[in-house]
Amino acid sequence: MSALRIAGVRKRFGAQEVLKGIDLEVDSGEFLVLVGPSGCGKSTLLNIIAGLEAPGEGTVEIGSRLVNDVEPKDRDIAMVFQSYALYPTMTVRQNITFGMECRNVPKRAQDEAVERVSRLLQIDQLLHRKPSQLSGGQRQRVAMGRALVRDPTLFLFDEPLSNLDAKLRVEMRLEIKQLHRRIGATIVYVTHDQIEAMTMATRIAVMHQGEVQQFADPETIYNRPANLFVARFMGAPP
Ligand code: ADP
Ligand code: MG
User: Fold this and answer.
1) How far is the CA of 19 from the centre of ligand 1 (A)?
2) Cα Rg of the chain, angstroms
3) Mind listing the pLDDT tens digit for each residue in 28-75?
4) Which residue numbers delimit the ABC transporter domain (predicted)?
5) Cα(235) to centroid of ligand 1, in Å?
6) Any bridge partners for residue 207, and if so which?
7) CA dihedral angle for residue 178, residue 225, residue 20, residue 60, rounded to 10 degrees
8) Whose CA is nearest to atom 15 of ligand 1?
9) CA torsion, points 28, 160, 143, 168, in degrees to nearest 10?
């Protein structure tokens, strides 16, 4: 079953056409990576998938429902951004439970969710700390924890590792991949990093100037790039 269907999506900001007709279909449980150079429209597309931004034309369906027909609070989507934006005065636990408090989730269910997620992400020893007492990687995990307690079927990441140093980035790639296997959610992951795309994706959409240049599995992208842009950008010989 397709978990996400994007059809004919176009978007302009003023005179600039940022998305020029995007069609993508993502299977349930897939790890789709949107990769392309800065400014090619990745974040705009992700925001449209999340329903945070309306498409100029076209549709986004998640599990056969049109995204914009669903109230934001009822959307089964969680998003992790590049800047983690944790609340600095709250503890890790409060950061994780804040969204559930806003939705009036009963206290016991909140505690269970915190326990499950903090064990999964190995932050169960850090629940009483403030964000300023955490390392970059730990903060990143808390941000993921905050998204995970929603138990989303669709998980959106926008360059979540680009503020981390190289070594930690490699570790976190593995962690996110393992997380994907364990929770079985569908993931759409934005990056400008080719290696990240090749190592994490089940399928890759290579974007350039508001268009998808190729949509295929990593091996096909590497061995049979669709055009010169894909060949050069993904680092395969032309
Ligand atoms: P990426 O995430 O691939 O770097 P973006 O989707 O952020 O690209 O941006 C694509 C293009 O759209 C860029 O040229 C950017 O300047 C422009 N853009 C993005 N958001 C806005 C906005 N809210 N208003 C005007 N232009 C925007
Ligand atoms: Mg971006």
Assistant:
1) 10
2) 18
3) 999 999 999 999 999 999 999 998 899 999 999 988 777 777 876 677
4) 4-234
5) 25
6) 212
7) -30
8) 39
9) 110
Amino acid at residue number 68: N
Q: Strand pairing partners for 9?
A: 22
The arithmetic mean of pLDDT across residues 140-166, rounded, is 87
**What is the ipTM score, two decimals?**
0.98
Confidence of residue 184 (pLDDT cuts 50, 70, 90): confident
**44 CA → ligand 1 middle, Å:** 6
Residue nearest to atom 18 of ligand 1 (CA): 13
Kindly give the distance from the C-alpha atom of residue 158 to the centroid of ligand 2, in angstroms, as a whole number: 7
For a ligand 1 pocket test, name from 17, 22, 33, 44 the mutation site with the most ligand atoms within 8 angstroms of its C-beta. 44
| Tokens encoding 131 | 């964000």
| Nearest C-alpha neighbor of 144 from the set 172, 166, 163 | 172
Residue with structure tokens 């600039």? Answer: 16
